[in-house]
C-alpha cells in the first residue's frame, strides 16, 4: 500500500530509493542519518559524486559564507571571481604539474552533458559522424551518450534508433581468447570493411556501471597509439573514475595518456554539487561562440567548493599517498571476503573496486543484507552481478574496516553461510 508522497506522487522511474527506502536527513563524512536518527555508513558516495564524503566542513563553511555575502549564484557563462578562482586553481594544481595543456569548457552541469559536448566536438573537428565505444560502456542518459552506452535496458529507453556509433570489445571481453584490437585494427585498414572511419573512440578506464571491468594500462596505451596512427580522436570519459577515484586525479595518468578530449563531472565540485568539465587539446577548440550552450554552466557554489577541494586534496602528494594505503586496505579486505565464495573474484581499480560473484544474484542479496546492517553499497554490471564499493576517498581506516566487516557478514548471510539470524544485527 502506498503510504508516503514519494510513492503516491513521484514517478516509478526512481531507482536507488527502491532498494534503500530510508529517508536521509543528515550527512557528514562517510555517514548519513535517517529522519529518526539511524546512522548508515555510505560506501556508495553518490555514485562517485562525493569523493571527499558528505558536507566536508571546510567546503560547507565556504558555501555558507559565500551565500551570506550575496555572492553571485547563477551566472550563465559570465565572469565571476568564483569562476576565475576555479580556473586558476585547476590550471595550477591539476593541469600544469601534469604538463596537460587543455582548454576547459563548461558544458551543462552533468556527466551526460560533458559526454554530449565531447561527441559533438569530435564530429565537428573531424567532419566524421561515426563514434566507436566499448561493450558494457556507460556514458549517460541523453541520446548521444546513450548511443555509445552498452546496457540494453537503458538503450531501449531512448525509444528511437541509436545511430552513428558501433561497439567494439573492451579489454578482456573474450577472456584472453582474442588478441587485443584484432578487429579494430583490421577494419580501420580495410577499405572494404564497411565500417565508416570514426571521428572518435570513447572509453572509460574502469567501467563503473558496466561491471567494474578495469582496462590494463598496456591496453589503454595500445588503444591510444592505434588511434593516433589512424588520426581518430581519443575521448576518455573520466566522469566516475576521475577526481581521484582510482588513486590519481585522472584515471589515465598511470597509463601516461594525453587523451584528445576528457570528460569530468561527478566529484569535480568536491561537494556533491552539479558541475562538469569538457577538457580538450587547444587545437581542437573550433567551437563558434554559443554553438554549445546551457543555462546552468555557471554554478558558482560548485566553483568555490571545487577550487578549495583541489587545493585541500591535490596541491601536494600527501592525500594521494594516504589514498594509496587505503586502496591497499580495501583490496586486501575484499580479497579475504571473496575467499568465502568459490569462484568469486575482485574487479576494478582503486576505490572503484568490488567483488564479482559466479551467481549473479549474490551481489544484490549481499547489498540487501548490507542495507539491513546500515551500510549503503550498490551493484554493477549487466546482470548486477558485481558488488561495487565506493567509499569516500578520505575515509578513516577505522570506518573502512567497519564497512568491510559488514560486507563480510552480508556476503555470508547472502550465501547462507551465517549462523543464527539473531547474529544479523551489526553493532552500531
Ligand atoms: C555517471 C556517469 C555518466 C553520466 O553522468 P550524469 O551526471 O548521471 O549524467 C557518464 N559517464 C560515466 C562514466 C558515468 O559514470
UniProtKB/TrEMBL annotation:
> What EC number(s) are associated with this protein in UniProt?
2.6.1.76
Pathway assignment reads: Amine and polyamine biosynthesis; ectoine biosynthesis; L-ectoine from L-aspartate 4-semialdehyde: step 1/3
State the CDD domains in the record. Answer: OAT_like
Look up the record and give one Gene Ontology term from the biological process aspect. Answer: ectoine biosynthetic process
Which InterPro entries does this chain map to? Aminotrans_3, Aminotrans_3_PPA_site, Dat, Ectoine_EctB, PyrdxlP-dep_Trfase, PyrdxlP-dep_Trfase_major, PyrdxlP-dep_Trfase_small
Cofactor or coenzyme needed = pyridoxal 5'-phosphate
MF term (GO), any: diaminobutyrate-pyruvate transaminase activity
NCBIfam families tied to this protein: dat (TIGR00709), ectoine_ectB (TIGR02407), PRK09264.1 (NF006733)
What family, per the record? Belongs to the class-III pyridoxal-phosphate-dependent aminotransferase family.
Name of the featured protein: Diaminobutyrate--2-oxoglutarate transaminase
Tell me what organism the protein belongs to.
Nesterenkonia jeotgali
